[in-house]
Amino acid sequence: MDKIIVKGGNTLNGEVKISSAKNSVLPIIAASILSGNKCIIDNAPMLEDVFVISDVLRSVSADIDIDKTSNKIIIDTSDICDYEPCSELVKKLRASFLIMGPMISRFGKFIISLPGGCNIGTRPIDLHLKGFNALGAEVSVGYGYVEAKAKKLIGNKIYLDFPSVGATENIMMAAVMAEGETIIENAAEEPEIEDLAKFLNSMGANVIGGGTDTVRVLGVKNLKGAVHKPIYDRIEAGTFMVAAAITKSKIKVCGVNEEHLKPIIAKLTEMGVVIEVEGESLTVDGTGILKPIDIKTMPYPGFPTDMQAQMMGLLSSVKGTSVITETIFENRFMHASEMKRMGANIKIDGRSAVIEGIDRLTGCEVKSTDLRAGAALILCGLAAAGTTEVTDVYHIDRGYVNIEKKLQGLGANIYRECY
Ligand code: EPU
């Protein structure tokens, strides 16, 4: 097991390069099943979640070559001959469920173990299943598995009760080779969905409106291979922007799309962080006096739940009262108790957290309870007095490429230790 040790107090400077988005690459790898031809992902992030979903595809006989030097993933799904991925792998990664839409679409049958709950909430899959049903699949759930069969998928109008990212992606992928037109209403609008639609279209699909609240998919007969370079990771960029603010530093974050970062830029600017965008880079100046703010997480273009923990860490040492309301996941405040161990004054009341900023957090051993919680604790450690030891680092490795090396490059005193 690894832990990350942070000696707080250093000011950061210089620039950091952002990797491609994990949450774009995972559905794109799943989508490659649809074509049955070779697909190439360039500049892919070399992350644990990417390795796990690749193993899930291998478990149904796909051939995947990951070149960690050139960050290239070559996927050949022509030989898929199993319709039940390894349940041990599926349980490791909820996003494994994203292969369901492509598998039903291409083979007309699929069986997968239920993903179950996870640290941040119960995360049901009812909306995915309703969508597959509406397209004509026969879906049954029992004995811990979901099974779907469909002689033929037929386009339909699907209204999502909630703009679920995963359900929008899964239904979109199932629909690309369905007969006729599918319309997904109240679809999630996250940039990663637009990226997936772009990849599907480069394989020959006809998806219109990916990344808006109405996605139209005109079914095509078959798809070809494609080469794709995913979008930048807006959450990794946001995490480094908070790193600048929490350490009262000025840094340059390279590899960003300003549009995707608008909700994060707006909130940091409201606090008094000065952000200047220049093309695909931005300068974040957190050297001024920062103010407390209120945040409510919302589906995109609202403030992302994946940045909630990092902002809680930052607000913990900003004088005054801030309130964070988490509306997406019902159990995504577990980092608060770890931050309290570092001296933070946070009170949780249902879906809201009231944060009274203190002068300075103090380092201690804290546990990373999920991916973003772990990143947030590292951020707290950068600003805290003394040494912070973040354990259960495997959560962080699921979604951040070399986080400690990137922070070292900015001048942080941070390193990894095996224990
Ligand atoms: N939901 C349902 N029924 C469904 C699907 C979702 O009730 O069938 C609920 C969930 O329980 C949750 C809410 O809808 O309360 C949002 O879930 P959504 O489906 O939008 O999330 P997801 O697709 O499971 C993706 C990201 C998450 C990110 C969320 C929200 C990927 C691989 N994961 O999850 O990323 O938090 O969207 O933006 O894209 C992370 O990167 O740390 C992470 C957790």
Number of strands: 23
State the distance separating the first and last CA atoms.
6 Å
At the fourth level of CATH, the homologous superfamily of the largest domain is Enolpyruvate transferase domain
CATH fold description of the largest domain = UDP-n-acetylglucosamine1-carboxyvinyl-transferase, Chain
Query: Radius of gyration from the CA trace?
Result: 21 Å
Sheet with most strands: 4 strands, mixed
Number of domains: 2
User: Which oligomeric state applies?
Assistant: single chain
Strand content: 25-35%
Would you identify the regions where 5 or more consecutive residues have pLDDT less than 50?
A: none
The 3D shape can be described as: globular
Bound molecules: uridine-diphosphate-2(N-acetylglucosaminyl) butyric acid
CATH class of the largest domain, anyone? Answer: Alpha Beta
Mean pLDDT: 97
Tally of DSSP helical segments: 14
CATH architecture of the largest domain: Alpha-beta prism
Function: Cell wall formation. Adds enolpyruvyl to UDP-N-acetylglucosamine.
Pathway: Cell wall biogenesis; peptidoglycan biosynthesis
Organism: Clostridium liquoris
Subcellular location: Cytoplasm
Plain-language structure description:
- It is a single chain.
- The chain is of the alpha+beta class and 419 residues long.
- The protein folds into two domains: 3-19 and 232-417, UDP-n-acetylglucosamine1-carboxyvinyl-transferase, Chain, CATH 3.65.10; 22-228, Alpha-beta prism (UDP-n-acetylglucosamine1-carboxyvinyl-transferase, Chain), CATH 3.65.10.
- It is built from 14 helices and 23 strands.
- It has helices at residues 22-31, 48-58, 87-92, 100-107, 126-134, 165-175, 191-202, 234-246, 258-271, 308-315, 334-341, 371-383, 394-397, 403-409; strands at residues 2-7, 15-17, 38-41, 63-67, 72-76, 109-113, 138-142, 145-149, 157-159, 181-185, 206-208, 214-218, 227-228, 250-254, 274-278, 281-285, 294-296, 320-325, 345-349, 352-357, 365-367, 387-391, 413-418.
- Strands 21-22-1-23 form a four-stranded mixed sheet, covered by helices on one side. Strands 2-14-16-15 form a four-stranded mixed sheet, with helices on one face. The protein has a four-stranded mixed sheet with strand order 4-5-3-13, covered by helices on one side.
- Strand 7 (138-142) and strand 8 (145-149) form a beta hairpin.
- Helix 5 runs parallel beside helix 6 (165-175), helix 6 packs parallel to helix 7 and helix 8 runs parallel beside helix 10.
- The longest helix is centred in the middle third of the chain and has 14 residues, at 258-271.
- The radius of gyration is 21 Å and the shape is globular.
- 51% of the residues are buried.
- Uridine-diphosphate-2(N-acetylglucosaminyl) butyric acid binds next to helix 1, helix 5, helix 6 and helix 12.
- UDP-N-acetyl-alpha-D-glucosamine binds at residues 94, 123-127, 306, 328.
- One of its GO terms (cellular component) is cytoplasm.
- The active site is at residue 118.
